[in-house]
Amino acid sequence: MKRIFVVFLLLVLGLAVYRAFHKAPFGQNRIGDVERPQSVSAFYLKHSPETLHTANSVTAIVVNFRGFDTLGEVTVLFLAATGLASILYRRKEEEEATEKAHLPGRIQLPSSTLVRTGAKILFPLILMLGIYVFVHGHLTPGGGFQGGSIIATGFLLMFITYKRFNVNHNVLIWLESLSGLAFVLTGIYGLISYGSFLQNTGWTGRLNDLISGGLIPLIYIFIGIKVGTELTNVLDTLLHTKPRRHE
Amino acid sequence: MVVSPVHLIAAPLAAAFLIPLLNKLYRDAARVVPGIVFLYNLIVSIILVNRVFQSGPIVEIIAGWKPPFGINLLMTPFSAVLTLLVSFMAFVIWLYGFRFKRSLKGGVVMYYEILQMMMAAGSLGIILTGDLFNMFVFVEITGITAIALTAFYRDRDGAEAGFKYMLMGSLASVFLLLGILLIYTQTGSLNMAQIAGRMPAVATGVKITALIFLLISLGTEAEMFPLNGWAPDAYSQAPSPTSAAFAAVLGVAAIYALARVGFTLFDHGSLSAFLTVMGFLTMLFAEMAAIAQTNLKRMLAYSSMGQMGLAMIALGIGTEAALFGALFLIINHAVIKSLLFMSGSYFIYNLNDKRLSALNGIHKRLPYVSFLFSLAALAIVGFPPFSGFWSKFYILTAAGERRMLPLIIGILAVTVIEMTYYLRVIGRIYFAKEETEPASHKPSIQALVAMTSLAVLIIVLGLYPDLIAGYLHKASMFLLDKQTYIQTVLHLS
Amino acid sequence: MSNYQEIISQYRPLLEIIVYGSAVALILVGLYAVLVKKHLVKVVIGLSLIDSGVNLLFVGVGYVTNHTAPIFSPGYENAADRMVDPVPQALVLTAIVIGFAVTALALSLVIRLYRHHKTANVEQLNRLRW
User: Fold this and answer.
1) For A199-217, how does the pLDDT look when each residue is reduced to its tens digit (9 = 90+)?
2) Taking an 8 Å Cβ-Cβ cutoff, which residues of chain B contact chain C?
3) Contact residues, chain B, for C58 at CB < 8 Å
4) What CATH number is given to the structural domain containing C36?
5) Mean of the pLDDT values across residues C103-111?
6) Is the residue at C129 inside a domain?
7) Which of C65, C80, C97 sits opposite A77 (nearest CB)?
8) Record: contact A11-C28, CB cut-off 8 A
């Protein structure tokens, strides 16, 4: 009975959402052009190549036009990692207790040689791909968030292949904090030298050059490092929480 | 260096990224740094409030792109008052919680301090931003910190309350996103001023759907009646400084967001009746539930909800006088409810018991804390010499001007309920007999300073409401003036 | 190429039903899981389904018929008037990251609850009156 009610409720809601978005027909041009802009996008599409010399206009929006959002977004990730650590934190005694306890049900078997060798070969390649993606964030589809997630998948591969694979937490924390701080400091640099937080430098290079777009690639590299370390940290926290024996 | 609104957000962000490093060098860095940040924020916001009231609203452009293309921070008189309030309360709550969990070493305290600091920073962001999607980002920052802090204690109820909060919070953010997307498709902008300017041209059906989506999500944050299931659990399971911050920091930001959406983005007239009715239902439900509680913190949580309901009623009435009352109420709620949570948690800390019945005769063990608690309880009900009286008085007067007789009777009736349960607690503290033991946990000196300053504020505002009345009048007038808001943002010189 | 563009223009209403409809359907399926399912992990899965639906809706709304990706690669430097709306794509990036953060937090809460109760069934953990 409850289910029927829920389904009915959901259908009503779905219809309401669909009807509302039906007023914005699929594929309709709501951007307009620069002379008659209907949306802020027209401005972005004009100034992304002309003023910022950034080929990927999504990157230009994410890092520069709406860079403050991205700073908030990076903070959300950071807070999620912090919150995760605070929720799953365990005192030293508890940890030692779990170390000693034999954990039934946990897979103790090592991965096969095939998997281990494959992971070893793939790991540096995945890292390289991730770095490539965030370094070219202003030229190709991709960027700091995508590259960072790719790096984290590399670490995930290592975590599940090698049971004893441990990342150095100090290095993670340093990278995480420093890259986050670097992002804020580039913002403050803009505030001091140009009078506006996160403002880009005047020099932006040539469209489609690797070094172009002013501070945009630099910030996206910081974001890439930050996201990569942050996600690795989250994975590490989630994977290395074994069930407690005594409760 | 010239201060500007962005400092209020950049400073906590930089500090949050720095704390993990500093904590390695100096063991107590995590405790001290947020205090420095909050003190800095307090000074900056005092300077900015002065500037706003002397020379008009401040618009801060971010990334060098003028609105509507870039994100802008905006300090109108209305948001300036709330910014100052949040900065002040964040500092006081930090002071109160300075010795919090001193027994725990290293990591955990650091997590707690970072989360607590970012909750205040996120609320400041909600209040300052002039961009709808940016507001969503800050709502999520406060949401995630609030969830993590709710689940901070390691007993089972914390995680459960956190999960419940997470469920409601993420559904709320889905609706917020849908609302923002809908508004974007129709107006082609995310800047609040431009949206406000283009809103009259939007088809009514879409407008109403977007409004409903935004109200569902912001109503969840503002503890509106059917959507507030998370609140009592979150308030009662979170650490005490966090409960105080829920009322003093998150609540303020939520009411601000509701006011901004209701008055600037949409037409207030269409919302008036809805907000009044929902506010009254919230208040009625909350106070009825509060009187049935046996747990001190849950009772305070329901009472918070009741105050939020009253603030919504005032927003719903929507005249200048009512908004003045609403602002006064928000300030009172932040100050008084924090004092209640702060002093109340010392009872719990000493008794190791959250039940109301354990409070019998506690004034002999904790005379000063009991005095502060009773003072705050009397103030929040609205007894005359305290500041709580004025906010209720102004809201009732505003309702009287609009000839809303049933509403006045309703508010008064609910106040009687409120009075009953607060007086019952005071009765227990002072007049019930119980064997007394010497207090085991005297409040720390920092906590005493924090609580006393709040108590002084309650009395001073109660005796001299004119100290802030001028500012509040200006602020509430500005909120009603939608055209000036649009002009200020879109036509920068 | 032109054949393909014609087909898209011709079937625009149908495509709308497919794209918007599947996004809304994803949201509904997710909501159903959140409201009805008893297992906490399933509830979390429901939440991320809702997020995916909303993200899909974002990208769908930004699409403009026969326009290309908003990247000024060599050969496309002057194609600004033939590009889809970049703003929803930028917003969806933010929304995805936030969705991830919430999901991670939710999973950690599930782990905590499971550790204490030895179960992840909603019906068996109602100390706080849901």
Assistant:
1) 888 788 888 888 888 889 9
2) 133, 137, 140, 143-144, 147-148, 151, 156-157, 159-164, 166-167, 169-171, 173-174, 177-178, 180-181, 184-185, 190, 229, 233, 237
3) 177, 181
4) 1.10.287.3510
5) 91
6) no
7) C97
8) yes
- Whether residue C130 is contained in a domain is answered as no
Residues of C in contact with B184 (CB under 8 A): 61, 87-88, 91
| Token pair listed for B64 | 């060098």
User: Has residue C89 been placed in a domain?
Assistant: yes
Q: Which residue, among A63, A76, A145, A172, would best test binding to B if mutated, counting the most B CBs under 10 Å from its CB?
A: A76
The tens digit of pLDDT for each residue in B307-359 reads 999 999 999 998 889 999 999 999 999 999 999 999 988 888 888 777 887 78
Name the residue range of residue C37's domain. Answer: 2-124
B177 pLDDT above the threshold of 90: yes
> Which tokens hold the place of B100?
């919090």
Q: What distance lies between CA B262 and its chain's CA centroid?
A: 17
Q: Which pLDDT band holds residue C28 (cuts at 50, 70, 90)?
A: very high
According to the model, what pLDDT value does residue A108 have?
60
User: Which two three-digit tokens encode residue A240?
Assistant: 């290395």
Query: What pLDDT does residue A243 have?
Result: 42
Check if the interface score ipTM surpasses 0.90: yes
Q: For chain C, how many structural domains are there in total?
A: 1
Supply the pLDDT for residue B360: 81
Stated as kind and residue range, the H or E segment containing B412 is helix B405-431
Give the confidence band of B439 by pLDDT, cuts at 50, 70, 90.
low
- Is the bond into B68 cis (omega within 30 degrees of 0)? yes
Q: Which of A8, A57, A140, A220 to mutate to test the interface with C (most CBs of C within 10 A)?
A: A57
Dihedral angle over CA of C109, C111, C116, C119, nearest 10: 110
Find the residue in B nearest to A15 (Cα). B209
- Chain A window 172-191: which residues touch C at a Cβ cutoff of 8 Å? none
| Average pLDDT taken over every residue of chain B | 89
Per-domain residue ranges of chain A: 49-90+112-237
Select the residue of B69, B147, B210 nearest A40 (Cβ to Cβ).
B69
